Amino acid sequence: MLLIISNVNQYDSKWVPAKRAAKKKKKVTKRGKSKVSGGQRKAQKSTSKTGCKPPLQEEVNKPAACGSGGASEHYDRWGQTMPVEILVKIFRLVVNQNGAIPFLCRVSQVCQLWNSAAATPFLWQSATISHCWIEPGKTQLPKTELRIKNTVRWLAENRFSQLRELSICHWKHHVNYVVEVISQFCSLLTSLKLTYCAGMSGEAFQNLGAGCPLLESLNVQYSEVQMEGFVNFLETYGSRIKTLQVTYGLKSDKTLSAISKGCCPELKLLEINTKLDSGFCQLPVCIQALQNGCPKLQVFRMLNVTLLPKMARRGASCTSGFPQLEELCLATSSVSFVKDEDLRTLLHSSLRLRVLDIRGCCRITPTGLSTLPCRDLECLYWGLYYSNDCMTASKKGIHLLTKKWNCTLRELDLAGQPFSSEDLEIAMANLAFGEGCGVLKSLNLCGTKISASALRPVLLQCSELSYLNLSSCRYLPRGLKKVYRSQADIHQLLDNL
């Protein structure tokens, strides 16, 4: 939420208290006597009876004196003597929790001390500007547009000198202006996030690259940007970018093609997601070319985007892979074309892999997963939430995975997998009696054929288990098919078993 700072102009950055209104004169009647209200008549009558004068309204509203001076003097003295460092630390705690805007804009209007504390550049290293004057997308009056631009410029000139991270949310107008102002006054900017914004042109991207030489993180998810200008920005300034997050569109293949050609050699995180109403999204990806273009990639996510492996050219058939990759996410709620060969091509040199999310990838087999080179996998998500049993490539062999990673697995998701009850019993025994049985914290067996005899050893040996999903497990007794979200609930389940 963006707040207009009405007490500050471009020439004065200090807070100025508002002037007190003049007291209203009493109404005088024709005879020259002041008009007396009914409440004052009652007060005069009570005075005549008790012999004491009633306090005036000004005396009632006046605070009690403290020491030799009045309360107002006491408050002023407190405001002048309190160390500003303490106030800055208090503001820092609030900013870390709720953000700099509008909190710092509001407290700066309290007094001069709070204004000087709120103007500390250290508090403005991260800010989020969202729309607050009118609903996004509606027509704006000229005065409103002027106030918006003036506020943004004032913040950039007077508060954003040490800005590192900026988020702009729900801006349908003036996005180019905001980016232009930020490019002029925020040379230390390292991260920019645009959420549900529209209208950012190629010129704005060029200004951003030229004015912010330290920019290394760019997030334009759920925003409408000029794709040609965005690709040109990556080709010109992509060597600085380490984190890139985009949303699938009609021209997403151009962005991925530019990255695969090596315009972002320092890229460490690449995420491509979709909108909720996008439906089936298919994106051709040449795995070998992407490995050549991003050799330092650590996190690769394609959320609900169907990866379509594309044949590599002759020169890109042999690559060094992703040697620094730690997280791979290919989760989808629709049809997945990824097979064991594609996954092996992606991860043939990823020895540091810790998180593997292949939910919905029904064509991958346990045998193919067991041949991956990573030995310290901590999270494996392999739930089939929207797949049919006839689409799965294999219905046995899950014990191979629990045997390989029983020492390191902390989270395991096998929801909807059609493995047999005997196979699951062997797999659970590997988790329960392995060397790292106390590491497992989360287990999702929703919709599987797990039995009570196979589940009991895991509950006994895995003392750190705090999440267990047994909903729709038809091989379990009634009353036990639910989600357990704490260790106390899991201990109670063990007693019931």
TrEMBL record:
Residues 81-128 form the F-box domain. Keywords: Ubl conjugation pathway. SMART domains: LRR_CC. The keyword Metal-binding does not apply. GO terms for cellular component: SCF ubiquitin ligase complex. Residues 20-34 have a biased composition (Basic residues). Coiled coil: none annotated. Residues 19-67 are annotated as: Disordered. The keyword Oxidoreductase does not apply. InterPro entries: F-box-like_dom_sf (IPR036047), F-box_dom (IPR001810), FBXL6_F-box (IPR047922), Leu-rich_rpt (IPR001611), Leu-rich_rpt_Cys-con_subtyp (IPR006553), LRR_dom_sf (IPR032675). PANTHER family: F-BOX AND LEUCINE-RICH REPEAT PROTEIN 6, F-BOX DOMAIN CONTAINING PROTEIN, EXPRESSED. This is F-box and leucine rich repeat protein 6.
